[in-house]
Amino acid sequence: MVLVRPSADAIYRRRAEIRKLMVHPGRQRNGAGGRLPARAIEYGRRLGFRQLLLATRGGTGLPELYRQRGWTEVGRCPAARQVAPGHSRDEHWFQLDLDDGGVSRTA
């Protein structure tokens, strides 16, 4: 599942955010996690967005995966996500400029 949410603020009307990107455990490790962002990029372009944003949890391979696929890290919030009592992870923010030919490179 991937959810793309356009900005509610008129000044950012050319921007959308990938709010949810989840792969059912039974579908993991078969490329679905790479196809979903690619579909979100296609959808964003079709709707005329110029930029996509997303946030992901640190402490996993996800931040590096997005970097490898052409996304630019634009911020980090230390210990922003509590994954268990007393255990937190950084939240990494990424953007992809669609006007610059932003293409999520698949592995």
Determine the N-to-C terminus distance. 19 Å
Low-confidence stretches: none
Averaged pLDDT: 86
Structure summary, number of beta strands: 5
Mind summarizing the main beta sheet?
Answer: 5 strands, mixed
Task: Characterise the protein shown here.
- The chain is of the alpha+beta class and 107 residues long.
- It contains 2 helices and 5 strands.
- The protein has helices at 32-46, 62-68, and strands at 2-6, 15-21, 51-57, 72-84, 87-97.
- A 5-stranded mixed sheet has the order 1-2-3-5-4, covered by helices on one side.
- β1 and β2 form a beta hairpin.
- The longest helix has 15 residues, at 32-46.
- It is globular, with a radius of gyration of 14 Å.
- The relative contact order is 0.20.
- The model has no long low-confidence stretch (mean pLDDT 86).
Which secondary structure elements does this structure contain, and how are they paired or packed?
Elements: E1 2-6, E2 15-21, H1 32-46, E3 51-57, H2 62-68, E4 72-84, E5 87-97
Parallel strand pairs: 2-3
Antiparallel strand pairs: 1-2, 3-5, 4-5
List the defining traits of the structure above.
107 residues, alpha+beta, 5-stranded mixed beta sheet, 5 strands, 21% helix, globular
Brief summary:
The protein has about 110 residues and is an alpha+beta fold. Helices cover about 20% and strands about 40% of the residues. It has helices at about 30-45, 60-70, and strands spanning about 1-5, 15-20, 50-55, 70-85, 85-95.
